[in-house]
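Not sure how to ask, but would you mind making up any protein sequence you like and the tokens describing how it folds?
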Amino acid sequence: MKDRSTLLARIYRLKLLFIGALLVILGLLTSTLAESLKGLDSPSLVVAVVDGLSSVFLVTGAIGIAVDFFTGRDKEAADTERLRNVLKEASPDIRDAVIAGFAETPDSMRGVATTETLDKLATNALVLRLGDEQFAREIYADVRDQAIRSSERWSDVDIDVRLSALAERSTEGAPRGSVGVPLFEVIVTWDYTLVPSARVQKFACVSNRDEFHDLLDEVPATSTWFLSPKTRLQPTDKAAYELLQFSVDGEPCSIRRSATETRQTYTVDLGEDVVRAGKPVKIRHTLRTVITREGHWLQLAMTQPTKNLRLTLDYTDTNISTLQVTDLVSSAKQPWVSYLPQEQSTKVVSIEVPGWVLPKAAVTFIWTLDGEVAAPAA
């Protein structure tokens, strides 16, 4: 910036010197013309006018060159100082106007602020609001990484879960390795709205923790179910996990299943038109899996930022005696948990979380079975 200003100043001085020199040359030429006119016995008025112009050109050019030579640097310094004073006096107003413009709408910062600058602005604003620099920086970094890494936003999420007891599997045709393990069948139906970011949606079942977290860290994340080895089922078995249906705005989509030695995967192609449209669509999918009754817990985690979550668990067809809900949800508003009265024949619990829920938030159901509850003291 300084080099550019210096270059412009030099160009300006060269222009002044050029104009001054040109005027001097014009003065000399008109003076020569005046002398020629005198020798040709031209009218005295014409000679006087030409002679006067030569004097004007010579004096103006010489004075211009002299003034620039003696005062050019002083004038440049004075102009610079004047500009500094103007900027110094106007800087509070300029600063306030810039901040107000940035605060008004996000579009005002689009194209003028880099990603690093935006992060600094957001962090500094949070530092001022929280009064703790380290806490503000760590909180912002955590929220930023979770939100930005998430390629989709889910809204109006409605999850219906049904637990039911499976009969003892000791008859012929039972899934391999499952004999004698009391299981609950889990059928989960998800309804939510999103703007699809990827054409293919993936669902997987694994029983290895590292593989489970690797799939969750993918972008976009794969909806992954961790199958406990206690079920004595293989994650590649349909009896352990199955995507039953998937639809977009009520239209069913075809489901393709594949399996490796360690997992099975279901993929659904939404179609290029759905993704290209960039409009919200209603997704509905249902999956079936199993958990052990003696595991005493079921956890459902969010893989994307979720707005307005509602989750209902129906455990009527089970031998669960008591059930509690533990929500690992960071939300500005308190989650609301509701149980049907015990005298009802239907056993249902529901939880609602208004507002946004970040990825990896989870709702956990913990239970005790009939016969595990201690009898009251006499």
In short: The chain is about 40% helix and 30% strand. The chain has a mean pLDDT of 78. The chain has three domains: 2-104, 113-146, 153-369.
